[in-house]
Protein: Glycosyltransferase family 1 protein
Amino acid sequence: MDESNHWYGHSQILGAYCGIAQGGPPRIQGFVQHGWNYLHGFPPNDKWCSPGYPRFIWSDVLRRRGWSMGRRGHYLIGAPWIYLLATEPELGSVPEGEREGTIWYPFHGWEKSAVHGDHARLAAEIREVETGPVTVCLYWLEYGDAAVRRAYASAGFRVISHGHRGSRWDGKGGDFLRGQLTELRRHRRVASNRLGSALFYGASVGCDIAVYGDPMQFEDERPEYGGTARRMRLWPDLHGVRVDRELAHEVARRELGFEYQAGPEELRRLFGWRKARCA
Structure:
C-alpha cells in the first residue's frame, strides 16, 4: 500500500466503511487521491504513481482532465471525507445556534517544499475581516514554527493543529479528518487564503466559506497548476470575504464527488479487499 493512502486517516476511514475487522485495513491495490486537486487528482510528476495501478479519484472533472493528459486507470469513488460522514454522521455535531466564529486555514507547505508569505500581515487582515472568535489551524510543519504560531496567537486567535498526516508505520494521522470534522462543525465559517480541501469539507457540513488574503507561494510552485490566476478564472464566485452559501455547498458536493460514493462491497472489490475479514 502506498504511504499516501494512509495520510489523514484515509485508509482507516475507508476500511471502517467497508466493515474491515480490527487490525487495520489491508493494502489498497492502487492510489487514493489524498487532497483536493485542480489538475488531475495527483501531482504533475508521473513518478508519483507506479504505472499500471489504478488511481481512485474524487470527481469526474479530474478523470476527464487526466484522460486529456494521457493518463488512464482512473476510478471515481469520491473523497474519503464522504465515507467519514457516512460512517459517523453525527461526529462533532452541535445545535446550529451554538456554532460560532471562524476556523482559518493558512496555506501550508509540506516536507519537501516550504511556503513563503507574511503570516503577521495575514493575521492583521483576518482581524479586520472576521467579527467573531477565530481559530487558526496550522499544518504540523507551520505549527512547529514558534514564529508562525506567535503571529496568530498575538492577534488573539486560538491556534491549533489537526496533527501529522501520518503513515502506515508511524501510527499518526489516523484521527486527522475526525478531528477536522469536529472542529468544522463547531464553527460558523471556514476561511483560507487559497481554495482547498478544508473549505469544501466545511461547506459540505454547513459552514459558510471565504477565500481572501495573500495566497502565499511554494518556493518551487509547479506551472502545470496555473497558479492563482487559474483558480480565480475557474472559481471566481468562491473568492472573497463573503461567498454564497448555497453555491459553495453545491460546488463542494461536486468537487468532493458525493454522487460517486461507492457501496462497501464495490469498494472492497476495487481495492482488492474481497478476502479481508469483516468486523
